[in-house]
Design goal:
2 helices, alpha/beta, three-stranded mixed sheet, binds iron/sulfur cluster
């Protein structure tokens, strides 16, 4: 089994998996081309398929007071541990893509201001081969 996996920094605070510190709490994320079967020419053509729209910033404040979620997050932050999901990527014309749908970048940045749907998000680290 490959150990290749980038550190994920994500600024999509509309996503229910997002946590302060630009961390993603999902166990696994999948990066796709925006268009099914298409090839990405720029990072704007990629998406985090694991984006799940939250209802609003108030819900995150509420979630942070939730014992389970808050406790897990606090423990991780206290230990100085960077939480990162495993990454599966289908953007096979990216220079960081590896056979088996792995990403061998050391870190990726996911963003998408005011994202409401998966295609509003991008893997900003995408670079064409
Ligand atoms: S948009 Fe993707 S990378 Fe960002 S928090 Fe959501 S699932 Fe994680
Ligand atoms: S950097 Fe490239 S290979 Fe890695 S997740 Fe982003 S698009 Fe996929």
């Amino acid at each position: 089994m490959s150990t290749v996996n980038p550190l994920v920094k994500c600024s999509v605070d509309q996503c229910t998996h997002w946590m302060p510190g630009d961390q993603c709490m999902a166990a696994k994320i999948a990066i796709y081309n925006d268009e099914r079967g298409g090839q990405s020419a720029s990072s704007a053509d990629t998406q985090c398929k694991s984006f799940h729209a939250g209802k609003g910033i108030g819900d995150y404040a509420g979630a942070l007071h939730n014992a389970n979620i808050g406790g897990t997050a606090k423990a991780a932050f206290a230990a100085g541990t960077q939480i990162t999901p495993s990454v599966e990527c289908y953007v096979d014309n990216c220079k960081y893509w590896k056979s088996g749908n792995y990403c061998h970048a050391s870190a990726i940045e996911v963003n998408g201001a005011h994202a409401a749907k998966t295609t509003d998000t991008d893997c900003n680290t995408f670079a064409p081969q």
